[in-house]
Amino acid sequence: GIQVEQSPPDLILQEGANSTLRCNFSDSVNNLQWFHQNPWGQLINLFYIPSGTKQNGRLSATTVATERYSLLYISSSQTTDSGVYFCAVSTSGNNRLAFGKGNQVVVIP
Amino acid sequence: EAGVAQSPRYKIIEKRQSVAFWCNPISGHATLYWYQQILGQGPKLLIQFQNNGVVDDSQLPKDRFSAERLKGVDSTLKIQPAKLEDSAVYLCASSTEDRGTATQYFGPGTRLTVL
Fold first, then answer.
1. Do B108 and A33 touch (CB under 8 A)?
2. Is the Cβ–Cβ distance between A65 and A29 less than 8 Å?
3. Are B104 and A94 inside 8 Å of each other by CB?
């Protein structure tokens, strides 16, 4: 099956700092989603982005499908940004998502 | 619009006991997914329904896990008998369709501890 690798696995940020999370995948995809899992375990949709660039407030994402990677940018980080960020992709016609291991982000005040 | 609902939120059982989880997807979503998330890992798909039919159950341990979506809306996931390694968060998700362009929305999950 498709391999999804996320880096860095762990990241500690000072509040107000910017960061970039990376997701590499091993095959062509028709679905790519970024999620934020908060400390209570809820998976929150951030972006549906199989290609191109999107922005939502302080977050933005870019997927370069031809080079099989996606980037999630966090600007002016806040303590509420803490949690695990997951990249998930689907290559199959039935939308089965394969998840990476996540990026654990801690933002300290 | 209400999100994906799951219950219970937490469950503690002893090994060899049975347990069931319930999921109500977003209204109008034809596709429903059950994922298992073990601590420190990303979620793994267990089973996918399109309306009341199974689309993919290739990673469901069928000797002990079962799932149904009889009327194409709510779904239940059952484990019988439970093993220690079943301790995990069980996440339900839904999407409008099963095509690769459909965004999946997740419920809050049920955290299962098997003692």
1. no
2. yes
3. no
